[in-house]
Write a structure and sequence with these properties.
Blueprint (H helix, E strand, L loop, with lengths): L15 H9 L5 H27 L1 H24 L1
Length: about 80
């Protein structure tokens, strides 16, 4: 029989999945945060230069503008409904 003033708990070891979850929640170390910022900056540079190059090609300009507009609309809609 349990007494009302006591609690039982178990300590579980960190698994790989738990560590990845902590990284996903931005609870990693400084080195991982620096890596995340550098990675996101690199992705932004790739996106920006790709967009600029695509807009310079006349054959792809309309498709690029339509795709960018659809992406922006989807972002706004998802931000509103979430």
């Amino acid at each position: 029989m349990r007494s009302p003033g006591k609690a039982d708990f178990t300590v579980q070891s960190n698994t790989l999945l738990r560590r990845l979850e902590q990284l996903h929640k931005s609870k990693g170390g400084v080195a991982f945060k620096v890596l995340s910022v550098a990675w996101s900056a690199g992705l932004f540079i790739v996106l920006a230069t790709g967009s600029l190059l695509t807009l310079q090609v006349k054959a792809l300009r309309n498709l690029a503008l339509i795709t960018m507009a659809v992406g922006l609309i989807a972002l706004v809609v998802l931000a509103i409904i979430s």
